[in-house]
Amino acid sequence: MQASYSAVRRQFEATIDAGRALTHWEFYQAYRNASDGADEESASETTEDALRALTEAYEQAAYSPDGVQIEEATRTVERARQLCTRADGGTAAADSDSVRADSGGEPRERGSDR
């Protein structure tokens, strides 16, 4: 999941001219601010909602001792694929193999101490 978030963040960095390192929520807010005047309002709203959901899932996976349920991890990886495709018009950079490799294994289930 963390690799999925990282892939999306890399795709969206060109949209955000922060000039400094941002936390995950600062990054989300910077994207919202940058997309406020977007012409494709409905597409931006969908992207913004998906980025918010991805940010929330990333925070849960990265900082909660309970991790996330496998179903949520699966939805998050798929959401990241869609966001990467929207951001660059090409193939999504976040595939399940890179997520497993970068996150240290399979997604953890809630209550799992793996």
UniProtKB/TrEMBL annotation:
This is DUF4129 domain-containing protein. It comes from the Archaea. Residues 84-114 are annotated as: Disordered. Residues 87-96 have a biased composition (Low complexity). Residues 97-114 have a biased composition (Basic and acidic residues).
